[in-house]
Amino acid sequence: MTNNKQLTVHSQRSIVHGQCSIVYGLWTMVNPRHLNHSVFRLVLFLFTLSAIGCEKEKLYDVNEQTILPPNANKTKLKSDQQYIAILYANLFQTALSSDNLFEASECVQSIGDKDLVHEVLISNYMNTGGVILPTNAEMRADIDGFLTETYNRFLVRNPTEAERQYFKNYINTHPNVKPELVYFSFALSDEYQYY
Length: 195
Fold this sequence. Notes:
Layout: H1 2-17, H2 19-29, H3 37-54, H4 80-92, H5 98-110, H6 114-128, H7 136-141, H8 143-154, H9 161-173, H10 179-188
Helix pairs in contact: 1-2, 2-3, 4-5, 4-6, 6-10, 8-9
């Protein structure tokens, strides 16, 4: 009678705990002194097999992936003439004449501080008139479109989601930011110096 009660208890446990509990229940029910040696070995083998089979090793396949920043392929520094010609084309959407390119590159080469000369050059171009850029209202009406167009124009790529979110937040929280300032910052960025 005692064995039947134990069997009932262990059967209920096995329903809850699965296959591992069934073997454990049989193991606790079986008294090795009353069994012959081969049956005891069989029960011991089943118990060991279920204990090993209960823990499965998890294997994951991982593909090797190289993750690089969006500007990773831009490794060559633009020459002064390249910088001037590309800047002019980005701002005015037309090519700079060879005479104007020569004059501007002579000015750039005569000044030692490249960052300063780039700021002066951009400022002069922005104040000349004829720069093709959206109005402030157009920029604020479609910030996503403005950012995509600006990245494509200046950096020849689409913005990443992090860049897009940063600029959207910045433009939305700073009402004094105008398209001229955004273009100015893109033309002075480190990435713009390379191709």
